[in-house]
Amino acid sequence: MIEEVQLVAHLKSETNKEEAFRALVSLYKERLYWHIRNIVKSHDDADDVLQNTFIKVHKNINNFKGDSKLFSWMYRIATNEAITFINNNAKRLQVTNNEVQQLAITNLTSDVYFEGSDIQIKLQEAIATLPQKQQLVFNMKYFEDLKYKDMAEILETSEGALKASYHIAVKKIETYLTKD
């Protein structure tokens, strides 16, 4: 497998850019898709946001300074694109971000790409009650099993703050799932 430093160099060179970009997409599209899907819920929306993410990566690769891993930089772009997507939907529908997420969860049962059970729908509902940062932290830790170090780089915050957010999110989800 091509090293990240080499991949970035190829992405920034005019001669190898397109080939390197195809390799980049192949390498990261599935992980980024699931990261985005955990935020926006819908397969079609996740596909759209993923496409926008790769367009931004392609356009802005020359601005990548290498201060973080390429993976972290792309995850940050994907996260921001997914949040922007939710915010834009909320504005367009003239509802809150939480209402957009509740609508997306309601639509999951009719999404042919969703193979979840009732408990998974209930879990998604519980996650949607969390503040946005706790949602991100919970999804990244629980579904993607990212290390706090990587999450700190992606979300540009401390590992301690992320651990606290995750712990609080888990408690809130447990409370939500055990009520009734």
From TrEMBL:
Annotated ranges, domain RNA polymerase sigma factor 70 region 4 type: 122-173
PANTHER family: RNA POLYMERASE ECF-TYPE SIGMA FACTO, RNA POLYMERASE SIGMA FACTOR
Keywords on record: Sigma factor, Transcription, Transcription regulation
A Pfam family per the record: Sigma70_r4_2
Keyword Transcription regulation: yes
Molecular function (Gene Ontology), one example: DNA binding
Transmembrane residue ranges: none
InterPro entries: RNA_pol_sigma-70-like (IPR039425), RNA_pol_sigma-70_dom (IPR014284), RNA_pol_sigma70_r2 (IPR007627), RNA_pol_sigma70_r4_t2 (IPR013249), RNA_pol_sigma_r2 (IPR013325), RNA_pol_sigma_r3/r4-like (IPR013324), WH-like_DNA-bd_sf (IPR036388)
UniProt superkingdom: Bacteria
Protein name in UniProt: Sigma-70 family RNA polymerase sigma factor
GO BP annotations listed: DNA-templated transcription initiation
Domain (RNA polymerase sigma-70 region) ranges: 24-90
Family to which this protein belongs: Belongs to the sigma-70 factor family. ECF subfamily.
Cross-referenced CDD domains: Sigma70_r4
